[in-house]
From TrEMBL:
Residues 20-80 form the HTH tetR-type domain. The keyword Glycosyltransferase does not apply. It comes from Sphingobium quisquiliarum P25. Keywords: DNA-binding, Transcription, Transcription regulation. It comes from the Bacteria. This is HTH tetR-type domain-containing protein. GO terms for molecular function: DNA-binding transcription factor activity; transcription cis-regulatory region binding. The lineage of its organism: Bacteria, Pseudomonadati, Pseudomonadota, Alphaproteobacteria, Sphingomonadales.
Amino acid sequence: MQTAPAFKPKRGRPTVEQVAAIEQTILTTARRMFLEDGFDNVAMEAVATEAGVSKGTLYARHPSKEALLTAVVHSSVAEWSARAAQHDHLLTDNINERLRHHARIIASSFGSPDVQALCRLMFATQERFPSVSAALHDVGYLYAVGIIARDIAGLGVKDGIPARDPDSVAYMLVSSVSGWLLQEGAARDIPAEEAQDMADRFADLLLAARASW
């Protein structure tokens, strides 16, 4: 798991770049500690020490551990989403290709140890911090659904097969791939090739029913 170098402050007022670097160090450090040690076993003071910042700096940015966890969720999803979108510009307007691509990206993302660990952490803290789980749902799950639904709607019009309910189709794809990975992954290690194959199969099943979209 990635370890951020402790921030080394310089004299004077920090620049915009330094402020961003401090925040990134805090969030990377907190994520690593939360996922490795468990949320309850990590103290804010320990995060500050590990990140190389003062407790005052940490609390000024994140006034509670729940607030810090929420920021970690947003930062993590943004990082993973940017990584997943790196090759989107190479896609064609073929709905089969795009749906398979989205399914494979979901499989790759949920196959990541960091993503699985964050999901387990959300399950463990959901009752105490429902707003944090809601944040992951909104910026992760709903974000993916929105991207896929827009593709389905736009390409449906282009192909002359408009989708009546693109959101539901997108929900089905995201839920089927991620749900299978989380359930099956809880019992065994899933080879990447198997995950990609299952992603293709889920996409193909939906594509076979395109007339009912």
